[in-house]
């Protein structure tokens, strides 16, 4: 049964995001409002954060290794802006303007080892922009996609989302310890490959980018190129999907990336080179959403065909078919050994392995 019902939005709730230490929950609505909640009590933390003139498309918390005590929150909107909120004062610190159409995704990345953090935004204006998270200065504009950019993923997504928590489950005793543990986990991924980005678009393609490599010399070159207005080249163009790409997700260990598309397929790529590895076929409708298991060994896909499918990444074959929803399945996540899904049939299902 629900432990709390969070009521306050005037309309559809479009996105929900846990702060990595689970102290707060943020939601974004069709009403253009961002709301903060205390997950222990289910009570709203103050009034809505207002400023967007259209609905909120995604939310991203500042990484714990950069700001353990009071992480800020970024919200992207159909209004073409991203707002960065100080969750303690509840004020908007700055607004990222520059996109000329809906900002579909915002991600708060680390930006490599010696950075104060960066914001990645993907937009229907066909560009991806990278911003310095300290003050909101534009660093790069990537213009290679030929249609709306609807999805993006970082090889650091999993460690940023889980912060100090690993599979051992030891709770940090202080913010400082949380910061140290989160930084160790982040550095572990970034030290070998830097922070990598994959973007997916309605142009049927994806691009793999290395904007913040692990080697400092290259970073200086990238900065110099940015100063000169130079165009940053993607490492690879990932082609093969026959229809719009709906979702892309790096595996937790960063070794693989998987993309889902309206062509009923899931494709698996090498997370470091972008090289094509395999196509996972079995769905008979558009594939909307993907989630990886924490050990990067399994992938689950959610589809318009009303099923979820769990794929084995050793064999690239279907491991488990999960019928049960009576209509399209819109969202899915892996939580330890369980799969959780939600769909058009208005039910949330929890599947035990």
From TrEMBL:
Keywords from the UniProt entry: Nucleus, Repeat, WD repeat
InterPro entries membership: WD40/YVTN_repeat-like_dom_sf, WD40_PAC1, WD40_repeat_CS, WD40_repeat_dom_sf, WD40_rpt
CDD domains: WD40 (cd00200)
Location (main, coarse): nucleus
Localization annotation: Nucleus, Nucleolus
Per-repeat ranges for WD: 6-47, 49-95, 96-141, 191-219, 238-279, 280-321, 322-353
Domain of life according to the entry: Eukaryota
PANTHER family listed in its UniProt record: NOTCHLESS PROTEIN HOMOLOG 1, WD40 REPEAT PROTEIN
Designated name of the protein: WD40 repeat-like protein
Organism of origin: Somion occarium
